[in-house]
Design a protein that fits this description.
The chain has one domain: Sandwich (Jelly Rolls), CATH 2.60.120. Helix 1 crosses helix 4. The strands form two sheets. Strands 1-7-4-9-3-2 form a six-stranded antiparallel beta sheet. A three-stranded antiparallel beta sheet has the order 6-5-8, with no helix packed on it. It has seven helices and nine strands, in the order αβαβααβββαββββαα. The chain has about 250 residues and is an alpha+beta fold. Bound molecules: 2-oxoglutaric acid. 2-oxoglutaric acid (AKG) binds next to strand 8.
């Protein structure tokens, strides 16, 4: 993989995919450990989907092997994150989007919609949020892959919506094999598509932000103290999550 090419692609299209990047064995272990948590969640929240009909978001656990350092501190991914933001970027969300059978096409939308400067909502700005996702299952067209409209992250929002509605810019489905890593700009218009299979489509996501940026748009779990202590000081500096039961953010 050429980091510079992938960074250019992310800058130009608003997303890029690193094919076969994460080791399949780590993802298999993550999926198996997460399966009972996910099934329990789906059982208890069947009637209250939080991302549209039959579509759920839940925070990922930090207990290994759901969490492993390889997901958060991968040299190739961090190199891209550092190039498009800066070396001080931190991870502050770790969650999973799960459309299940019956889910529908979402409206094309952007994430984290509140502009940084409300008085100049279309001010062109360098990225201060980037999301990194990978499937815990294979995501074919039938499983409901995310679709992204290339280039729309760099357009005024209304023009981007018009271009997508008129078909001038086509949404591109992003199917993912196990190990593929999708890196995307949250202001590229995108939408979830229907999962027509009986397999919950679990897409795990780490959000990286510039160190000065914060919002509490998505729930995150705390890191257990033993897991926190197992990280190196350099790794701890990248993690902005509460540690232990106190909910306190680490002083790094
Ligand atoms: O998980 C997906 O396919 C996209 C979900 C999404 O964009 C959302 O719920 O805001």
């Amino acid at each position: 993989m050429n980091i510079r090419d992938k960074t250019d692609e992310l800058r130009e299209k608003g997303f890029c995919v690193l094919r076969g990047h994460f080791p399949c064995a780590l993802i298999d272990d993550c999926r198996e450990a997460f399966r009972p948590i996910l099934l329990d969640y789906l059982e208890n929240h069947r009637g209250e989907p939080n991302r549209g009909p039959h579509r759920h978001f839940l925070p990922m656990p930090f207990e290994p092997p759901c969490f492993v350092p390889e997901f958060f501190f991968d040299a190739g991914v961090l190199s891209i994150i550092h190039r498009v933001m800066d070396e001080r970027a931190v991870a502050d969300q770790w969650g999973c989007d799960v459309p299940v059978q019956g889910s529908r096409m979402q409206e094309a939308h952007v994430d984290y919609q509140r502009p940084l400067f409300a008085e100049v909502p279309d001010l062109p700005l360098p990225p201060y949020v980037v999301v990194v996702s990978f499937g815990l299952v294979r995501i074919t067209r039938a499983h409901g892959p995310v679709e992204i409209a290339p280039g729309t992250h760099a357009m005024p929002r209304e023009a981007a919506v018009r271009a997508v509605r008129s078909g001038e810019i086509e949404m591109q489905p992003v199917p993912l094999e196990i190990g593929d890593v999708l890196i995307r700009h949250p202001w590229a218009l995108h939408r979830g598509t229907p999962n027509t299979t009986d397999i919950p489509r679990a897409l795990a996501t780490i959000r990286y932000v510039r160190r000065w940026y914060a919002d509490d748009s998505r729930a995150a779990n705390p890191i257990p103290p033993t897991v926190w202590q197992s990280l190196t000081p350099a790794q701890q500096r990248i993690m902005r999550f509460p540690v232990g039961d106190s909910g306190a953010l680490p002083a790094v």
